[in-house]
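>> Question from a student workshop board

For tomorrow's exercise we were told to take the sequence and the ligand below, predict the bound structure, and bring the output to class. My setup keeps failing. Could a helper post the expected result so I can at least see what it should look like? The ligand is GLP.
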Amino acid sequence: MVARAVRQNPRLVLGLPTGRTPESFYHALVRMHRRGRLDFGRVTTFNLDEFTGLAADDPRSYRAYMHRVLGAFVNLSTSRVHLPDGSASDWQREARRYDNAIVRAGGLDVAVIGIGANGHIGFNEPAPALEAATHLVRLRPESRRANAYLFGGRPQQVPTHALSMGIGTILRARTVVLLATGQAKAAIVARALTGPVTTRVPASLLQVHRSAVAVLDRSAAAGLAAAATDSA
Ligand code: GLP
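>> Workshop helper replied:
Here is what the output should look like for this input. Compare the format with yours to find the bug.
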């Protein structure tokens, strides 16, 4: 879907996720690029989030992750690759700068996102209310545990905060593609796609999006069959 969108519009503006789930998606993009079938030369990317308190060149940052899985292998122009700057001292200013850059680029054409086991998208954590714009987030313990693999397996080393794109920017993307794999995501995928729309499961807000697609493997989709049977 993303490759097709890039071929149709070489100036595509992409929202991109991190995590283990999208690694095979990035590998596929790299493969297509290497076979000469995908040109990123004029594509613009905006990542969903970044940890705060890490140096700009910290190998554990999402910026470094993006370089490892995609940037190092395709012809993305560095001036068109955007992540929130987690090392900024004035996070409010940085959040405004990031949102303005997204607006100037014309908004996100396709936002590819993952889902946290607690239903978060980007780092929009379950809460009574969600922020529409880029903002500072205090990470839930479960989110720090889920990201420990980037920090030598030690959750306490994971930064306590992150800057995340807001739910408004994600929902304004022209198309949203939600990726989920593995049995550990089955329950939350079922709640997000078939449960009530609630800020307690941020991904459930995608149910009101006009053009949202969930791409699931069988294990992640297992709870959907159960949900359908329950309601039948
Ligand atoms: C992180 C990211 C999210 C991502 C989630 C799921 O917390 N901030 O954007 O969707 O992890 O990660 P994984 O794919 O490793 O399960």
